[in-house]
Amino acid sequence: MTYLMPTYARQPISFVRGEGSYLYTADGTAYFDALTGIAVCGLGHCHPDISAAISEQASTLIHTSNLFGVDWQEKAGEMLCKAAGMDEVFFANSGAEANECALKLARLYAHQQGKARPKVVVMENSFHGRTLLSVSATANPKARAGFFTLDDDFVRVPFNDAQAVMALSDDADICAVLVEPIQGEGGLHTPSDGYLEELAKICDDNNWLLMLDEVQTGNGRTGKYFAYQHSTITPDVLTTAKGLGNGFPIGACMVRGKAVGLFGAGSHGSTYGGTPLGSRVVCAVYELLDEALMQNAQAQGEAIRTAILQKFATQGISVRGRGMMIGFAMPDTVDLSNAVNLARDEHHLLINVTGGNVIRLLPALNLSKADTQVLIDKLAAVFAQLFAQSPR
Ligand SMILES: *Cc1c(COP(=O)(O)O)cnc(C)c1O
């Protein structure tokens, strides 16, 4: 008997403790967590510095409201904006809220331009969250069904197709493009080199905002602070959450250039946005998130890809993603319906499947060489079994 609404297809297991890349059940059994709470605990579970910052701040000052100055919020804002190459930030409490903030900014921007019916360009296979506006921007039919989504507010085009966006240049209602630099929930689709540059040019030419959803790709996940930093562009609006708090719920919407100055006092807000506690956690995360750590994410991510490809390339596996955002696209002949259970129950490895046929890993950014090898060995054993059980 449960009192919880049945919104999740939960696996029949729960954990009572976490440390680094490992989660433990009540009987002490260790599981290798290659998902880190869906790209959230990028520094590993219960990183001692994060836990210390939380407990110290929890016994000093948790919340005062945004009626007053919040020193830790000022500091977190500076650290985050400097790392992200952005001018200003609004702190929210989740990814969906960060995107809601971005979409509201786009509407204000359109209003400023005298547009009557603003529309934002979004992508096929996109995921932007579950508030009504962010779920309307999301592609997944399961997330949208029955909610009377606000479809007049969006135009959807294929991902990684700058021409399709260019073709909308004549539509005077469009005010912004919202896109993930690498699609996370949609199957780890990584666009071709030059895609973001082309989008930035189209947005510039048409005076649209380029808004990047880096809720999943941000905070070191791809080996840079933000995935767009692998390109030559800078977005007008940048959202993030997940890894930002290493498990503490916090999100952020950042702006620069033409997106600065749209909000004034009273035009947006959040009771919990940027509390002393949440902000202190962001500072602690960014204190740890340095070049060496992000290089480790690149190197260990590459080691995992290379090792698995070496073993299974002849079986038709291909790799997706970047840094510690790792996808293995499996050939159609491989049945993945029991992959998650098999990995968990027989190999004590936590993974998931997105986009139908992609095994997704989101390991800790600070994975040691030894843990990288453990992960490769477990994964290779799972893959060998998956191939063995599928007809060729
Ligand atoms: C997870 C995710 C969101 C939603 O974040 P929540 O914190 O669950 O609201 C939005 N966009 C992307 C790209 C995500 O991966």
UniProtKB/TrEMBL annotation:
Pathway: Amino-acid biosynthesis; L-arginine biosynthesis; N(2)-acetyl-L-ornithine from L-glutamate: step 4/4. The keyword Cytoplasm applies. NCBIfam families: argD (TIGR00707), PRK01278.1 (NF002325). This is Acetylornithine aminotransferase. GO terms for cellular component: cytoplasm. The lineage of its organism: Bacteria, Pseudomonadati, Pseudomonadota, Gammaproteobacteria, Moraxellales. Its main location: cytoplasm. It is found in: Cytoplasm. Its EC number is 2.6.1.11. Pyridoxal 5'-phosphate binds at residues 95-96, 127, 213-216, 271. May also have succinyldiaminopimelate aminotransferase activity, thus carrying out the corresponding step in lysine biosynthesis. It comes from Moraxella cuniculi DSM 21768. Homodimer. Its cofactor is pyridoxal 5'-phosphate. N(2)-acetyl-L-ornithine binds at residues 130, 270. Belongs to the class-III pyridoxal-phosphate-dependent aminotransferase family. ArgD subfamily.
